[in-house]
Design goal:
alpha/beta, 4-stranded antiparallel sheet, Rossmann fold, 418 residues, 38% helix, Immunoglobulin-like, 12 helices, 6-stranded mixed sheet
Length: 418
């Protein structure tokens, strides 16, 4: 998939700008010099020449500062925390500038960042000294999933008369990955997986999560508490270490050609996948012709599984046409083996016949759920897709813009229990 990278601004190199004062002073100096020569007036010639010389001195001052900066700055390093950001979250960047000599403390630096990382605003950094140089710290407020660029930093030089200023790039750039925004669905993920087992068995047998739960003991990691089951039982219970034989989930993500629909679908699929990880079940995410698996989801491995699934969404892009989207989804559905025992959750938009034909066999296991998102104008087509999937054994709902992921997910779980 194509990476979405926003180039830094401005281009690398030095850019010099003359202020209105500088333009006016140069024009006035040239005019006085011309008048003085024309009228053979030594005072006017002297004043005009002095004015022009001041402009030349200002330019030389800026050039000297630029050369001094080049000799002073020996390296730039950025530390981003957290290393991978999330859309809608926050981050902090520390730009360590290695500099030497007396001019190091007087450097005027400004950091650049793609607008997708700053929420459309400019960076406002605090500058402090550190051994061997200075450090700039500023906050990030990423708003878009993808890969975006930090830097390069700018070193500003200006003359004492305020006639001109120059920005020179310092150091290089750094690419930062931004995960999609996700919502917390973990409280109901275990219910979904247990419901899948009951639907497959055709009876109200105990849920898989209930079988693998035990009472809370002093010293247990609170992240292992299964809150949904704890609420039902009235006492804290945690997931056991045993994972063998646990129901797995496959998340099928159909990438729509529209940008708003794409981001909603990616966020929804990622949220469902992470909720399955939180419930302790193996999961795989299939999207855009790629497949990412997270089989070990217990203890510290859960964090690695979470990162692996989110990393897989960063470079996903919208297909060019609806036909391309249908073709890719049909190919992705074919990755799920016949007779599978996985729970399948599909996040799709209204699809064509080829996609329905590829998805239909997955409903025979009674373990397939689908969220079909559409605009109000596309509601009729979405309903036809839902009916076709229901006829094949799927549990499917239609979610219309601007319904939230949480609301759509809640209706899907209600749909499966009816």
């Amino acid at each position: 998939m194509t990476r979405r990278i926003r180039p830094a601004r401005p281009e690398e190199g030095a850019q010099t700008f003359v202020t209105p004062r500088g333009v006016g002073l140069a024009a006035a100096g040239a005019a006085l010099l011309g008048v003085g020569i024309g009228f053979a007036s030594a005072p006017l010639v002297l004043i005009g020449a002095a004015t022009l010389v001041s402009a030349v001195v200002g330019a030389a001052w800026i050039a000297a500062q630029t050369l001094a900066t080049r000799a002073t700055v020996t390296g730039v390093r950025r530390d981003v925390s957290p290393p991978t950001l999330s859309a809608g979250g926050a981050g902090v960047v520390a730009v360590h500038v290695r500099a030497q000599g007396p001019i190091a403390r007087t450097l005027r630096l400004k950091e650049q960042a793609a607008s997708e990382l700053t929420g459309g605003g400019s960076t406002r950094a605090t500058i402090a000294g550190e051994p061997g140089g200075i450090v700039l710290r500023y906050s990030l407020a990423p708003v878009s999933r993808g890969r975006w660029v930090l830097g390069p930093a700018l070193s500003r030089a200006s003359d004492p008369f305020g006639l001109a200023w120059s920005d020179r790039t310092v150091g290089g750039t750094q690419e930062v990955a931004v995960w999609p925004a996700v919502v917390d669905l973990a409280a109901s993920a275990g219910d979904l997986m247990g419901a899948a087992d009951r639907a497959h068995a055709g009876a109200r047998t105990p849920a898989a999560d209930d079988v693998s739960l035990r009472d809370y003991r002093d010293g247990d990691d609170l992240r292992r508490v299964h809150w949904a089951s704890s609420a039902r039982r009235g006492t804290l219970v945690v997931r056991s270490e045993e994972q063998q034989g646990r129901t797995a989930a496959t998340i099928l993500l159909g990438l729509p050609p529209s940008a708003p629909g794409l981001e909603w679908a990616i966020s929804a699929a990622a949220s469902v996948a992470l909720s399955v990880v939180e419930a302790g079940h193996p999961v795989r995410l299939i999207a855009g012709g790629t497949e990412t698996s997270a089989m070990d989801t217990h203890g510290r491995a859960a964090e690695s599984a979470r990162a692996r699934l989110l990393d897989a969404t960063v470079d996903l892009t919208a297909p060019e046409t609806t036909a391309d989207a249908d073709h890719t989804l049909a190919a992705d559905a074919a990755r799920v083996e016949p007779g599978h025992r996985d729970v399948v959750v599909a996040v799709i938009e209204p699809v064509g016949r080829s996609s329905v034909a590829a998805l239909a066999p997955l409903g025979e296991s009674s373990r397939a759920w689908a969220m079909i998102r559409a605009s109000l104008a596309g509601r009729a087509r979405a309903e036809r897709t839902a009916e076709a999937l229901r006829a094949a054994g799927w549990r499917a709902i239609v979610t219309l813009e601007p319904e939230s992921i949480v609301d759509a997910w809640g209706r899907l779980l209600t749909e499966e229990s009816t």
